[in-house]
Amino acid sequence: MAPTTVKTLTYLQQEKTLESSFVRDEDERPKVAYNHFSTEVPVISLAGLDEVHGRRVQICQNIVEACENWGIFQVVDHGVDAKLISDMTRLARDFFALPPEEKLRFDMSGGKKGGFIVSSHLQGEAVKDWREIVTYFSYPVRERDYSRWPDVPEGWKAVTEEYSEKLMGLACKLLEVLSEAMGLEKDALTKACVDMDQKVVVNYYPKCPQPDLTLGLKRHTDPGTITLLLQDQVGGLQATRDNGKTWITVQPVQGAFVVNLGDHGHYLSNGRFKNADHQAVVNSNTSRLSIATFQNPAPNATVYPLKIREGEKPVLEEPITFAEMYRRKMSTDIELARMKKLAKEKKLGLDLEKENQLKELEKPKLDAKPLNEILA
């Protein structure tokens, strides 16, 4: 087996059992099937959003309710061309179908900004996510590093550039709605981002030999302002709004974007709008593709509620930069993973000690009489 093959899931998906580095603790494993769909997350048509009166009022109300209840909703009639979506999806699938050595030409391990990598969640975590990704940073435009964008399949650059531009426009429209809902100028949330960053992450979740033991992407909230996710019809995006007690699998809707509100959006609204708590599961029947477009504030943007309603307290003690907010979030997540690992090791140690004690009790004593003497 060539050494490059081990680094991708192309080889591992052929195994009958899951490699231990992907096995999650029992409390983190999927509780709902990837295709047990729920319609609880609202699907909102944006047709008529640009009308100052009429439909716009109702659309805004629907979006606000979704953000208050879930922090997640789906949009259709969003104005992004169906052919562009189809081209983007086709090119993404073609990329992941490339031989491992071709994908690894864009290897982003070792701190490179953009490219291809397996798993990629948090550094220092023991358990990997069952996914491959290719990612590129598209805004601010002046900071684009095209050397980190794949040059295959043919047409990738032109299509991904157009896709990035259209999704930036859609994200800003949605932020306008949320700004108005907070009683602010419609560009308030966009301005709070200072110079909006955009990162596009194309996720590929191959078939998995033991999907019940792992996750495609572990439970998390997005750190940024708002995320637009394009998913195929397979299913696997799951959400919770009761801190993980119950989960739902979001119903895939052809051509729709799933909109997730992130931590930054949550803090700017003083907690009024929820940051979507979600994860991705995998399956053994078919691969799944999703494309996440993260709209984030500039690193130096201030994170603090833009408006605090009467009788409310601010959800943050003091204003901090987005870079500092992100650093704290990552540090907390890594520390929680470390503590959980230690607790697990300690429990294993205690269980082993208990097992040894039981074995000692089960051992025949040296001075015990033979069975025939006892029965005599």
From TrEMBL:
It holds the Pfam family DIOX_N. Pathway: Secondary metabolite biosynthesis; flavonoid biosynthesis. GO terms for molecular function: flavanone 3-dioxygenase activity; L-ascorbic acid binding; metal ion binding. The keyword Oxidoreductase applies. Keywords: Flavonoid biosynthesis, Iron, Metal-binding, Oxidoreductase, Vitamin C. Its cofactor is L-ascorbate. Catalyzes the 3-beta-hydroxylation of 2S-flavanones to 2R,3R-dihydroflavonols which are intermediates in the biosynthesis of flavonols, anthocyanidins, catechins and proanthocyanidins in plants. The keyword Transcription regulation does not apply. This is Naringenin,2-oxoglutarate 3-dioxygenase.
